[in-house]
Automatic annotation (TrEMBL):
Record keywords: Decarboxylase, Flavoprotein, FMN, Ligase, Lyase, Magnesium, Metal-binding, Multifunctional enzyme
PANTHER family found in the cross-reference section: HOMO-OLIGOMERIC FLAVIN CONTAINING CYS DECARBOXYLASE FAMILY, PHOSPHOPANTOTHENOYLCYSTEINE DECARBOXYLASE
Signal peptide: none
Protein known as: Coenzyme A biosynthesis bifunctional protein CoaBC
Catalytic reaction(s) noted: N-[(R)-4-phosphopantothenoyl]-L-cysteine + H(+) = (R)-4'-phosphopantetheine + CO2; (R)-4'-phosphopantothenate + L-cysteine + CTP = N-[(R)-4-phosphopantothenoyl]-L-cysteine + CMP + diphosphate + H(+)
Region (Phosphopantothenate--cysteine ligase): 190-427
Taxonomic lineage from the root: Bacteria, Bacillati, Chloroflexota, Ktedonobacteria, Ktedonobacterales
Family: In the C-terminal section; belongs to the PPC synthetase family.
Gene Ontology terms: cellular component: phosphopantothenoylcysteine decarboxylase complex
GO molecular function: FMN binding; metal ion binding; phosphopantothenate--cysteine ligase activity; phosphopantothenoylcysteine decarboxylase activity
Gene: coaBC
Region: Disordered, residue numbers: 283-304
Role summary: Catalyzes two steps in the biosynthesis of coenzyme A. In the first step cysteine is conjugated to 4'-phosphopantothenate to form 4-phosphopantothenoylcysteine, in the latter compound is decarboxylated to form 4'-phosphopantotheine.
Length: 427
């Protein structure tokens, strides 16, 4: 997504300018060509050498230098940019941009470029909420500028409130979202499920699994970066919500099933990467189940102190969708055009079990991985998967990062969308 993209980062004079150093570093590491522009007041906080060291490129700061080359530079930067991001965007710079004022290199580039502009405001809370600042932001949004809302938190003054610059992952997510608006999933609505489910035994205990949700979150972020509207239905995980993704948290398999059915009607793709529990307790205790003294019998507990839980089977979400597809035409819904991808996490007989799931659930393709491997599956940063197709083909992908696996999966989904439309007779 960022490889060889020309990103211009404008840095204004605010205490949050130090966070722009990490942003520039991460962009450069991701393969972007980063040009940094500092305002005069930004140099009161951070020197140009810091940014040139991180970007491996010159830093621009003076529109009025005597050689006149700055005039050429500001036009060249404006024309070459794929994106202009201003971070932090101060109240003064927002006012200048809103009213077309040009008095430094940054505002000159901003007025000259036709690239998307992304603003990350950061300032004292009263300055941010002031009607003048809000009016300027509203005017800029009307002109197509994207604004990354500041977070509520502790500010440099010690006060608590809105105005805190988001951390680098959020800023990178915003950049990827803007750059991906014309991607190969633009205009598509996709559902990704992620994480495991927790099936309550009592208010403090549950039946669950080891799924971290990393694969599903990578799939959601990759789809976002390609321009899709992404709904991420996620079980309990220890991961931050991805920027630009509609997140629907659930806990149980039944809640996940309900969420999928709620969003499915106008979706183009469903990728079920969640590790949904196959079983749940038949009943849930309303109070914490206590250990009993010897000789006493409690709920599901024998005289010997053994404890048992009666389990019932959870619904098969993809299996239910297959039944809908096989229903008489009058009973079918819009999900008959849905591209459906499933996952199979196995510890033995990987191909045989995966082929059975693929056939039973009538998927477009299935992603299978051996979770007994130390480098693949639950909690790891990498994954080693097989792709099994409805026509019998099996594609063996090498070990790679989960983000790379997500990209490979979407590369195979995109052509299926065209096939589905042709089969449906759509234009």
């Amino acid at each position: 997504m960022l490889q060889n993209r020309r990103i211009v980062v404008g840095v204004c004079g605010g205490i949050a300018s130090y966070k722009a150093i990490d942003l520039v570093s991460k962009l450069q590491q991701a393969g972007a060509l980063v040009d940094v522009i500092l305002t005069e007041h930004a140099e009161e906080f951070i020197q140009p050498l810091t940014f040139s060291t991180m970007s491996h490129r010159p830093v621009y700061n003076d529109l009025w230098e005597p050689s006149g080359q700055a005039a050429e530079h500001h036009i060249a930067l404006a024309e070459a940019a794929d994106l202009l991001m201003i971070v932090p965007a101060t109240a003064q710079t927002l006012a200048k941009l809103a009213h077309g004022m040009v008095d430094n290199m940054l505002t000159a580039v901003a007025l000259a470029t036709r690239a998307p502009i992304l603003l990350a405001p950061a300032m004292y809370k009263e300055m941010y909420t002031h009607p003048a600042t809000q009016a300027n932001l509203a005017l800029l949004r009307e002109r197509g500028v994207t604004v990354v809302e500041p977070e509520v938190g502790r500010l440099a003054s010690g006060a608590i409130g809105p105005g805190r610059l988001p951390d680098t992952p959020t800023l990178l997510g915003a950049i990827a979202t803007v750059l991906g608006r014309r991607g190969d999933l633009a205009g598509r609505r996709v559902i990704v499920t992620a994480g495991g489910t927790h099936e309550p035994i009592d208010p403090v205990r549950y039946i669950g699994n080891r799924s971290s949700g990393k694969m599903g979150y990578s799939l959601a972020e990759e789809a976002r970066d390609r321009g899709a509207h992404v709904i991420l239905v996620t079980g309990p995980v220890a991961l931050p919500d991805p920027y630009g993704v509609e997140v629907q948290p659930v806990e149980t398999a039944l809640q996940m099933r309900d969420a999928v059915h709620r969003f499915i009607a106008d979706a183009d793709v469903l990728i079920m990467s969640a590790a949904v529990a196959d079983f749940r307790p038949a009943t849930q205790a309303t109070q914490k189940i206590k250990k009993r003294s010897s000789g006493a019998q409690g709920r599901g507990q024998s005289e010997e102190g053994e404890f048992s839980i009666e389990l019932v089977q959870n619904p098969d979400i993809l299996g239910e969708l297959a039944q809908i597809l096989n229903a008489p035409p009058a009973q079918k819904t819009t999900c008959q055009r849905l591209v459906r991808v499933g996952f199979a996490a196995e510890t033995e007989h990987l191909v045989a079990h995966a082929q059975t799931k693929l056939q039973q659930k009538q998927l477009d393709f299935l992603v299978a991985n051996d979770v007994s491997r130390s480098d693949s599956g639950f909690g790891t940063e990498t994954n080693k998967v097989l792709l099994l197709y409805a026509d019998g083909r099996i594609e063996d992908l090498p070990l790679m990062s989960k983000a790379s696996v997500a990209a490979e999966i979407w590369d195979r989904v995109v052509p299926l969308l065209s096939v589905q439309e042709q089969g449906d007779g759509s234009e």
